[in-house]
Design a protein that fits this description.
Elements lengths: L3 H11 L3 H5 L11 H14 L3 H7 L7 H14 L3 H17 L9 H17 L3 H8 L6 H13 L3 H12 L6 H14 L5 H11 L7 H13 L3 H14 L5 H13 L6 H12 L4 H19 L10
Main location: membrane
InterPro entries: Coatomer_esu (IPR006822), TPR-like_helical_dom_sf (IPR011990)
Protein name: Coatomer subunit epsilon
Length: about 300
């Protein structure tokens, strides 16, 4: 049974309240929850694109497999070159093998953390099969299930995501993470007109102790899909304000909302230019570039017939 402090930290991490989480003071190093809370803080720093702070939290020369895994993830996210990225992935592969040994000194929670962290990195690298194998499709760790569901949704297999969710309902408690998994599937599939998904995000945002731009963005996207454009823009504007305009997902969703509803002249173009400049590898930018290239190719093959002239 988790302590109330660890429970609160875990809920903040699950709902993407990373800024609030990293601002919390760590408990005494001798406290039973110290390692778990430090690990969530380090992962939150990584989610905020601050790998340096994550690495500062992790003790140097640690033998703790979960700490070593999160340090490898931080190095992977911060790496610029492919060789450096691959080196970090190799570290995570080695750790994934190490925790299966009989002589490893690690708790079940630490082993589960290694699998989730390694699986996350492999998924980010596009190694889908390796990520799923590492996480374990028969796992009874709900955080691993959440990552598996996200992987299935990212490769357009909501059927497999639903199957994984239904499987987890047989053994998992009806806690917040399980509800979030259900809402994420609903966001992709449009079940019940997104009503359950919208209700879940709205309920979480009503919590006075939670500040989560991630949930605001999710609700904004849900409202776009429900054709509630002014409300969606309001959510996305607030999300970007909380993140000092740095989040690519909120910006991309806001551009879509501007294109679908009334907006200031040139507003969508201004934000689109910013997305292209600051986040050139964002899927929306890459997709638009590909479609633009296909259009230009089609135009180049089109021959304009000569104008008809009077006989």
């Amino acid at each position: 049974m988790d302590s109330s402090e660890l429970y609160h930290v875990k809920q903040q991490f699950i709902l993407g309240a990373h800024k609030s989480l990293v601002a919390l003071a760590l408990p005494d190093p001798n406290a039973a929850d110290y390692n778990s809370i430090l690990l969530y803080q380090a992962r939150s720093h990584i989610a905020l694109h601050d790998s340096k702070s994550a690495l500062k939290l992790v003790p140097s020369n640690t033998h703790n497999v979960a700490f070593r895994a999160v340090a490898s993830l931080a190095r992977y996210v911060a790496a610029q070159g492919e060789s450096t990225k691959e080196a970090s992935l190799e570290e995570l592969r080695d750790l994934s093998v190490e925790i299966e040994g009989d002589d490893v000194e690690a708790t079940p929670r630490e082993k589960a953390s290694v699998r989730v962290i390694a699986g996350t990195a492999f998924a980010m690298a596009g190694e889908v099969e390796e990520a799923l194998e590492t996480l374990g499709t028969d796992t009874e760790d709900l955080e691993a299930v959440a990552v598996i569901v996200q992987i299935y949704l990212s490769i357009n297999r909501p059927d497999l995501a639903k199957r994984e969710y239904e499987r987890s309902k047989r053994w998992a408690e009806d806690d917040l993470l399980l509800q979030l998994i259900e809402s994420n599937i609903g966001l992709v599939t449009g079940k019940d007109g997104y009503s359950n998904t919208l209700s879940f995000y709205t309920e979480q945002l009503g919590n006075p102790s939670l500040t989560s731009p991630h949930i605001l963005t999710a609700r904004g996207v849900t409202r776009i899909l429900r054709n509630e454009i002014p409300e969606a823009k309001s959510d996305l504007e607030e999300s970007m304000e909380q993140q000092q305009q740095n989040d690519a997902e909120s910006l991309a969703a806001y551009i879509v909302a501007c294109g679908l509803g009334p907006s200031k002249k040139g507003e969508a173009d201004e934000h689109w230019l910013r997305l292209q400049t600051e986040h050139p590898t964002h899927p929306l930018v890459l997709d638009m570039a590909q479609k633009s290239a296909l259009f230009d190719e089609a135009v180049s093959k089109f021959v304009v017939p000569p104008l008809a002239t009077a006989a």
